[in-house]
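Before a colleague's protein record goes any further, I have to sign it off. My question to you is simply how this chain folds and whether the tokens agree. I do not need a full report, just your reasoning and any doubts. This is what I was given:
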Amino acid sequence: MATQLLAHCEAARRRGDDFPTIWHSILRGHPLVRGLPTHQIQDGEAVIVVRLMNGQSLHSSLRGFWLA
């Protein structure tokens, strides 16, 4: 289910949607999402982190989305 969510988010990003739009249209109401997004700096880059109920996290930066 996390890989499907990742694919949805990445498809929206490729269409030109920004993170706030993706948050409101895909992530906020998704049953796998746990809580609000947080921010981190990873290798000098700002990253938005969305924690998931399965223990994984969905990360977003200018490079795209990925699971960790």
Remarks:
- The beta strands are 38-42, 45-51, 57-61, 64-67.
- The CA atoms of residues 10 and 64 lie 7 Å apart.
- Residues 2-67 form one domain.
